Amino acid sequence: AQKVTQAQTEISVVEKEDVTLDCVYETRDTTYYLFWYKQPPSGELVFLIRRNSFDEQNEISGRYSWNFQKSTSSFNFTITASQVVDSAVYFCALSDAGGTSYGKLTFGQGTILTVHP
Amino acid sequence: NAGVTQTPKFRVLKTGQSMTLLCAQDMNHEYMYWYRQDPGMGLRLIHYSVGEGTTAKGEVPDGYNVSRLKKQNFLLGLESAAPSQTSVYFCASSYWAGVSTDTQYFGPGTRLTVL
Fold it and tell me: Which is the most buried residue in A17, A102, B49, B82, by most CB within 10 A?
């Protein structure tokens, strides 16, 4: 069975600090996808990134960066120079890439990030 | 292009009442999903559908039924609501990209309270 663990329940930082959200996953599948979603206070789920298990290159998008390490089964998310608008719940998720998985997502518990001005 | 929409946005039910949540997508996606979100537990899959007329159980299907009579719609039903079904319900859809399923896109959610 698949499992995603986000050990940090809540993180509080002051604006402009860097913050890293941890994600550890378990799967028996050799091919899978990892995701991060953001849930701002308004409640919707916003897709941030999708990473194939074959692609271990780190990715950067503006102030966001992701570190995928297959050896430790981790897919961590770093926000550089955090801003108040980054305050949200962040979810890490996993899905098997095989056709019979039908893209079903297994989510972590979520990390509540609060950025103080 | 509205993406994924959900009706209603909020609902309060009494124990034992029934209701149907409607999810609609205009992206011609084959796959649709219903999740529930509870504090500290992330999102958990209730049911999903891989095409019109087909449905399957997810991780937490008990107490729910679903139907997909049209490709664009996925209905979630509660026949006899219980307080344990108080939650935020999210619908999502995705398409088959030929080799694997593409990213899921989520609706805005329905906040359901069962008294």
Answer: B49
Say which of A44, A50, A105 has its CB closest to residue B108.
A44
Which of B44, B90, B104 is opposite residue A103, by nearest beta carbon? B104
pLDDT, tens digit, 9 for 90 and up, residues A20-63: 999 999 999 888 999 999 999 999 999 999 998 988 888 889 99
* Half-sphere exposure in the Cβ direction for B73 (13 Å, CA): 10
* DSSP letter (8 states) at residue A53: T
Nearest to B33 by CA among B115, B104, B110: B104
Secondary structure class of A70 (helix, strand, coil): helix
The verdict on B34 touching A (C-beta cutoff 8 Å) is: no
pLDDT grade, residue B97 (50/70/90)? low
C-alpha to C-alpha distance for B92 and B90, rounded to whole angstroms: 7
